[in-house]
Amino acid sequence: MRIVxxxxxxxxxxxxxxxxxxxxxxxxxxxxxxxxxGADVRGEELVAYDRLGVAPGDLVGLSEGGEAANPFGRxxxxxxxxxxxxxxDISF
Length: 92
What we know:
Radius of gyration: 14 Å
Largest sheet: 5 strands, antiparallel
Order of helices and strands: EEHEEE
Mean pLDDT: 87
Helix content: under 10%
Structural class: mainly beta
Strand content: 25-35%
Distance between the termini: 18 Å
Shape: globular
Low-confidence stretches: none
């Protein structure tokens, strides 16, 4: 799981039926320097699947790869990155 910052969203005109009702935020990975020191360093943007209702500026725990599809159980869902949790506070 990686910590990412929500920076925008994708709007779809059509969607796979297994993905209806979800949002697709654009997120940027937050390296340790950005989390600890507030540095402007960020990773490459990617699109995630969201049912938590994240908004720009939120910090999110992002699950990727095969683990991202696990919350759906036996339902086959074409997801590669999933917003698993909202992060309220980080302390070092």
